[in-house]
Specification:
By secondary structure, the protein is of the alpha+beta class. The chain has 2 helices and 6 strands. It has a 4-stranded antiparallel beta sheet with strand order 3-4-5-6, with no helix packed on it. A hairpin with a 5-residue loop joins strand 5 and strand 6. The protein is globular. The N and C termini lie far apart (40 Å).
Length: 100
Amino acid sequence: MQLIACPWCGEREEAEFHYGGQAHVAYPEDPYALDDEQWAQYVFFRDNPKGPFAERWVHSAGCRRWFNALRDTATHEFLAVYDIRAENPLTAQRQGQEAS
């Protein structure tokens, strides 16, 4: 059984959590202006990388709070957990590399 570190409750078994999809997907500013194809892009199409990926998780059998996690999709290892209001660590890392 894999352990996931809830930011509020600490490490718990993965059975206490539920996956909530890709993190940092912004809701459209004017959803009524979208045509069917654009709405389908927002609802159904997500990144599917091999490697580090920012995801949303909820501690459904514990504190019931949402958080983001950086997880390696190839190894399933959780690299970091962070508040849903925080910036995507992958984006921040890329910006730091571009500035160098």
